Amino acid sequence: xxxxxxxxxxxxxxxxxxxxxxxxxxxxxxxxxxxxxxxxxxxxxxxxxxxxxxxxxxxxxxxxxxxxxxxxxxxxxxxxxxxxxxxxxxxxxxxxxxxxxxxxxxxxxxxxxxxxxxxxxxxxxxxxxxxxxxxxxxxxxxxxxxxxxxxxxxxxxxxxxxxxxxxxxxxxxxxxxxxxxxxxxxxxxxxxxxxxxxxxxxxxxxxxxxxxxxxxxxxxxxxxxxxxxxxxxxxxxxxxxxxxxxxxxxxxxxxxxxxxxxxxxxxxxxxxxxxxxxxxxxxxxxxxxxxxxxxxxxxxxxxxxxxxxxxxxxxxxxxxxxxxxxxxxxxxxxxxxxxxxxxxxxxxxxxxxxxxxxxxxxxxxxxxxxxxxxxxxxxxxxxxxxxxxxxxxxxxxxxxxxxxxxxxxxxxxxxxxxxxxxxxxxxxxxxxxxxxxxxxxxxxxxxxxxxxxxxxxxxxxxxxxxxxxxxxxxxxxxxxxxxxxxxxxxxxxxxxxxxxxxxxxxxxxxxxxxxxxxxxxxxxxxxxxxxxxxxxxxxxxxxxxxxxxxxxxxxxxxxxxxxxxxxxxxxxxxxxxxxxxxxxxxxxxxxxxxxxxxxxxxxxxxxxxxxxxxxxxxxxxxxxxxxxxxxxxxxxxxxxxxxxxxxxxxxxxxxxxxxxxxxxxxxxxxxxxxxxxxxxxxxxxxxxxxxxxxxxxxxxxxxxxxxxxxxxxxxxxxxxxxxxxxxxxxxxxxxxxxxxxxxxxxxxxxxxxxxxxxxxxxxxxxxxxxxxxxxxxxxxxxxxxxxxxxxxxxxxxxxxxxxxxxxxxxxxxxxxxxxxxxxxxxxxxxxxxxxxxxxxxxxxxxxxxxxxxxxxxxxxxxxxxxxxxxxxxxxxxx
Amino acid sequence: xxxxxxxxxxxxxxxxxxxxxxxxxxxxxxxxxxxxxxxxxxxxxxxxxxxxxxxxxxxxxxxxxxxxxxxxxxxxxxxxxxxxxxxxxxxxxxxxxxxxxxxxxxxxxxx
Lengths: 878, 111
Fold this sequence. Notes:
Structural class of chain A: alpha+beta
CATH topology of chain B: Arc Repressor Mutant, subunit A
CATH architecture of chain B: Orthogonal Bundle
Radius of gyration of chain B: 16 Å
Strand order of the largest sheet of chain B: 1-3-2
Distance between the termini of chain B: 40 Å
Strand content of chain B: 5-15%
Order of helices and strands of chain B: HEHHEEH
Radius of gyration of chain A: 38 Å
Helix content of chain B: 55-70%
Distance between the termini of chain A: 66 Å
Largest interface: A-B, 30 and 28 residues
CATH class of chain B: Mainly Alpha
Strand content of chain A: 15-25%
Largest sheet of chain B: 3 strands, antiparallel
Number of strands of chain A: 23
Number of strands of chain B: 3
Number of helices of chain B: 4
Number of domains of chain B: 1
CATH superfamily of chain B: Winged helix-like DNA-binding domain superfamily/Winged helix DNA-binding domain
Oligomer: heterodimer
Shape of chain B: globular
Helix content of chain A: 40-55%
Number of domains of chain A: 4
């Protein structure tokens, strides 16, 4: 029943404050008056009596404040009042407020922007159902040099049948489809997948249905599911498309469904899915030769990755015993889907987040320092407030309110800043996810921004507190100027702290920048300038025989050569970096002792290597003569040549078949970095002339490289026109320069370096600003001392030296601490670096020197000011 | 500023409630009565009385109303609420137990 009394009381003190205050006042006054009357009766004069009464109360205002504290509504009222007061303080110091807000806004903005990407890529679950239970299952044959390789259909079928760790396993492989009859013919990257793919991923189509289990068998009518993007782009988002027939590879396909927006699997550029099934006959040895499939599975509840892997490995071992011819040495591995997709983007994103947190810490300590400096100026104000009955906690809350208000406004600035930066952050998203995930301003992001803002507000809001409470009240009232008896130790510590963190950020940036420079300096093995590239995927139904294909290649090359500005042009199976597959075993005649080796195989036209600018080390290039009427020839890369003892020219080799027919090596060329510019190729390359190819297969050329004079892209339209003149239904895809392909290798690193550089710049400026502000303050505070010293004969030079000495001490301490931190944490970066050690002395020395130089320059102006002090003026002040 | 009262923590509340159990009183009267009854042994400073009163009021043990006082001025009269009465009984029992125990210990030392 207590609430009967208490609730009305609370409401009253909240909403009828003036009345309640009046009553408090009346009550106290009544007491004092009665006490005074008593004193008068005891013989005091009225003035004495009143004074004695007031004294007896022990400070009326303090008592009142104690009474107010008893009202539980205090908190609400105080917060409102504190905030009002904080707004007033901020408005009184607009310059200070703006600067602090800008500094914090940048710090919070940097964090929020980076977090948006981290959240999208690493933290938010994929759009799949229970994504943490999705895994990829791969085969491996480490002995043959495949630590991680595609799966043979027969093995997939056996895994699916014999394993009980998975709810289901789906298999798929990438394919190219020619879509005709809807405007210009288009080559679409698509997936052929077992019909259960979507049920394994647990994603329902936005329109239509999943494949059903009988679809994809040979002889069935063909169906397809479209990506949201393709449906919008090619079919205008028409919902009636489901059930209609479209023309793919010159055959009718019924559209079974459209996937939801944002769904992508396995890549961002996958535009359609077509079902395929592997007939049971493939479980014989026939289906175990070709390793083509990717396998994705859903783990059963309570089954771990490790458990599943052990099980699949057991099955693989059994298969290796049953089918030694095809399965010898093949094992299996299970990798979580997310890990597969995100790969090494994880570390670089965490690096960016760490750097941005350091920037925020620097920003915080900077603002804390500003508040500390201002706090000294406010000593008097706070002393007055204490004298009027404000307890320590009240003062602390007041300071806190100012800090939190400041950081709240900075939070708004930061979120706007982050939202504006989204468009630049695309490149940070790993390629497998691009298009599916993107940074957005959502509740999570806002929550993050508010959280870090609050934390920073508390941190720097309370910074002045310790300092303030050391102040002795009576001393504060006596002091004539702010700054007498200044304590700068905590501020000097903050400056050193900022410097230390800045060293860490700058050193990390230096390492990443040097990595990019190193990668840029790597010789990729070809000359990327002035080369136009494009992909002409030949449809099996349009070019069913190798003769037709050879005729097509010839005609394209003939027409391209006739274009003005073309120096050389050539076809190949795959350009470097565009496909890591297409490898076969490498065999030499009469040499069974060569360890099992796999090389990339490329069918090329005679000018391809020339157009790429690969260097010929020995022998000759292919010529137009190297066709099926002439002996079979091959060119091998340096890496393959090393496998053969002695002179490779004239040796007999074969790619893929240990029994021949043998090809004669006619040339040796330099190695290209096939897998990535930062990776030395794991495999060598064997080239054969396409004109000697005997079958329509995977290795037939599809990529065209054209070396031109001038800008390669200016030729793009003409090349396209020539191709369509030969076959109006031929798709022309991935038109870009060779430099662009090379550049893609480093584009995410470049963005990362650009962001880190921005962070570095920010931290250096903040550290310098902090030092400058502190030294200016110190010089101002020690004005009298300097004046006296000058009057006693100190030269300006000595005073400058004194100030510089102090700054060198602070900055030096910070730099050393930063160096120590860097040495400890840099090791975790090593997998992001290329050609530079994480503790690279040059980079570290440069960062240390930079910060030191910046620190000393920041000290110059205050030092100069110290030397200009007029001793007379300074002493008069005293 | 030294603490104005040497009273055991919480005893002031008990004294106030006990006094209000007899009749409604205003702050001044309570302070006078405290001095009278305890024979100046319990020095309750005038200032510390009011925060205690306000606390008890906020707790709902006592309630207040303004009424004319003996010298015809308006004063804030406090009286015990029903829950306050129960609280007082509880606290009194507590106090008796505590003081009896202390007395025993103190006498034990003497003997």
